[in-house]
Amino acid sequence: MEGNAGGNKRRRVYSVEAKKVAQSAFTRNYVNYLIPALTKIKNQNTTTTSSDFKNVKYEVDMAMAFSAEGFAWSHGLKLKLLQRDEDEAPTITTEKASSNPSLKTSSDEDEKMKSELSSLRKLIPGGEEIVDEEMVTELESYISCLEMQVNVLQCLLSLS
Amino acid sequence: MSSGSRSSRQRSHSTRISDDQIIQLVSKLRQLVPEIRNRRSDKVSASKVLQETCNYIKNLHREVDDLSERLGQLLSTIDADSAEAAIIRSLLSN
């Protein structure tokens, strides 16, 4: 099921079949995390609205990470958030060389593909860690969870 | 969380991704990204698919940011207790 080993960063191979994130499970987990977190923010709110946004965004991201356990991106997202919590820094994106000059593939199309792929990787939290074989499941779950997240947030906003 | 062996098998982005994987990835992305899915054309090149995917993800990120901001503003204007109760009630009744 969830391939979440205890903090071990060796290559985890996820089976493809069990990886569809059920919408109901995601939504329920998401709301269960976010609502109490927002209430907490509301109750401790003595500060300006700008830090409110940061706090809300943090919880929004955390809710996302917790609602879809077992993916490299959700793990990566948690790490990023926890690090941000510690050093108050904005999201950390490591600068990696996107194209390896020693690979002479001698094709423009190939080069373009590589650079597109690397841009895509950068958009996924923890993307630098994702091996090619996992890219498909990771992208699929990440995109569908992002969509679900948007739906949930729109829902919450429309209710008030 | 141990981050010790993080760099030991970093072969993913410095070696060439295999053609098979690209094909698989691109075909999956065709289904996932609405822009491409709705076009119903097989003529979209692989790199265009990747590009559209990047755009789509960026758009989703922006939308989440925007919604979070509105949510934050909302927090300061409503009574949390009644809002929470209302939200939970509505969601549970669906």
From TrEMBL, chain A:
One Gene Ontology CC term in the entry: nucleus
PANTHER family found in the cross-reference section: TRANSCRIPTION FACTOR IBH1-LIKE 1, TRANSCRIPTION FACTOR_TRANSCRIPTION REGULATOR
Subcellular location: Nucleus
Classification via CDD domains: bHLH_AtIBH1_like (cd11444)
Biased composition (Polar residues): 91-105
Species of provenance: Arachis hypogaea (Peanut)
Domain (IBH1-like N-terminal): residue spans on this chain: 23-84
Pfam families linked to this entry: IBH1_N
Keyword terms: Nucleus, Transcription, Transcription regulation
Start and end residues of each stretch annotated as Disordered: 88-118
Superkingdom per UniProt: Eukaryota
InterPro entries for this protein: bHLH_AtIBH1-like (IPR044549), IBH1-like (IPR044660), IBH1_N (IPR059002)
Protein name: IBH1-like N-terminal domain-containing protein
Signal peptide stretch: none
Biological-process GO terms, alphabetical: regulation of DNA-templated transcription
Statement: the UniProt record of this protein carries the keyword Transcription: yes
Presence of the UniProt keyword Repressor in the record: no
Automatic annotation (TrEMBL), chain B:
Keywords assigned: Coiled coil, Growth regulation, Nucleus, Transcription, Transcription regulation
GO cellular component labels: nucleus
Protein name: BHLH domain-containing protein
Protein's organism: Arachis hypogaea
Origin superkingdom: Eukaryota
Subcellular location: Nucleus
Gene Ontology biological-process annotations: regulation of DNA-templated transcription; regulation of growth
Main subcellular localisation: nucleus
Occurrences of domain BHLH (ranges): 6-60
One of the record's GO molecular function terms: protein dimerization activity
Ranges in coiled-coil conformation: 50-77
One Pfam entry name: bHLH_ILI
